[in-house]
Amino acid sequence: MTPEPAFLLHKRPYRETSALVDLLTLHHGRVRAVAQGVQRPGSRSRGRLQPFAPLHVTWVGEGELKRLRLMEGRGSAALLAGEGLLCGLYANELLTRVLPVELPVPEVFAFYTAMLEVLPRPEGRAGALRRLEAAALEALDAWPRFTDPEGGELDPQRRYVLDPASRAFVAGEGGIDGRTLRLLARGDWAEPGLAGPAKAVTRAALAPLLGSRPLRSRELMRQLAQRRRVHAEARQQP
C-alpha cells in the first residue's frame, strides 16, 4: 500500500517488545495495529512513534487488528506543554473513544492537523478543539440539528437543551438561549461570549458516544484549573 499520513492517538505495551497502537490516518480513519519490536531498547521506530508527531505508515492484515510494516517520520512533533499538552491528550483520547475502526474521516484528520499547529498558543485552543469535536460529530452523524424536534426554528428568546436522541433542542430551564444557538448553527464561534455555549453543545452531543466512563484528560484539566485557582487565591492574600 501507499504510505499513509498518520498520527498516534494511543499506545500501550504488548507482549515483551511490541505495542498496540491506535492511529488516526488520512484515508482510513482510526486504525488499530501491532507495532512489533517498537518497545525494544534502541529501536529507531520507538523514537518516531510519539504523540503529536506526523508519520507515514503502512500495514497488513484483513481483520480489525493490523500489523504495521512501515513507520517513518514526516516532520517534527508539535511542542506542547501545560494546558496545550492536556488539550492534545484530550483530542487523542476523544478520537480513540468515539471513532469506529476504519471509518474514513478525512475532515477529522484535517482539523486534527490544524489543531496541533494552534495548541501552543492559548488564544486558539478552545476554537480548535470545538472545530475538531464538530468534525467528529458530523462524521458520526451526531451533530445537532439546531431546530426544535419538529424541525422548526428556535425562538431567540427561549432557552433550550439538547435532546441527544433526536439531536434537536427542546425548551428547558438552564439551557442556552435560541439566539446563541442560531449563531452556533452558522458556525459563528468567534463571536464574543460563544466559547462557553459551544463547549456545552459539543459536550452534550458527545456524551452518548462516550458513555458513562469519564475521560481521563478531562479530569487532568479540572485538576490543572483547580491548582491555578488555588495559586491565584494564595497570591491575593496579604
From TrEMBL:
<protein>
    <recommendedName>
        <fullName>DNA repair protein RecO</fullName>
    </recommendedName>
</protein>
<dbReference type="GO" id="GO:0043590">
    <property type="term" value="C:bacterial nucleoid"/>
</dbReference>
<dbReference type="Pfam" id="PF11967">
    <property type="entry name" value="RecO_N"/>
</dbReference>
<dbReference type="InterPro" id="IPR022572">
    <property type="entry name" value="DNA_rep/recomb_RecO_N"/>
</dbReference>
<keyword id="KW-0233">DNA recombination</keyword>
<keyword id="KW-0234">DNA repair</keyword>
<dbReference type="Pfam" id="PF02565">
    <property type="entry name" value="RecO_C"/>
</dbReference>
<dbReference type="GO" id="GO:0006310">
    <property type="term" value="P:DNA recombination"/>
</dbReference>
<comment type="similarity">
    <text>Belongs to the RecO family.</text>
</comment>
<dbReference type="InterPro" id="IPR012340">
    <property type="entry name" value="NA-bd_OB-fold"/>
</dbReference>
<dbReference type="InterPro" id="IPR003717">
    <property type="entry name" value="RecO"/>
</dbReference>
<comment type="function">
    <text>Involved in DNA repair and RecF pathway recombination.</text>
</comment>
<keyword id="KW-0227">DNA damage</keyword>
<feature type="domain" description="DNA replication/recombination mediator RecO N-terminal">
    <location>
        <begin position="4"/>
        <end position="72"/>
    </location>
</feature>
<dbReference type="GO" id="GO:0006302">
    <property type="term" value="P:double-strand break repair"/>
</dbReference>
<dbReference type="InterPro" id="IPR042242">
    <property type="entry name" value="RecO_C"/>
</dbReference>
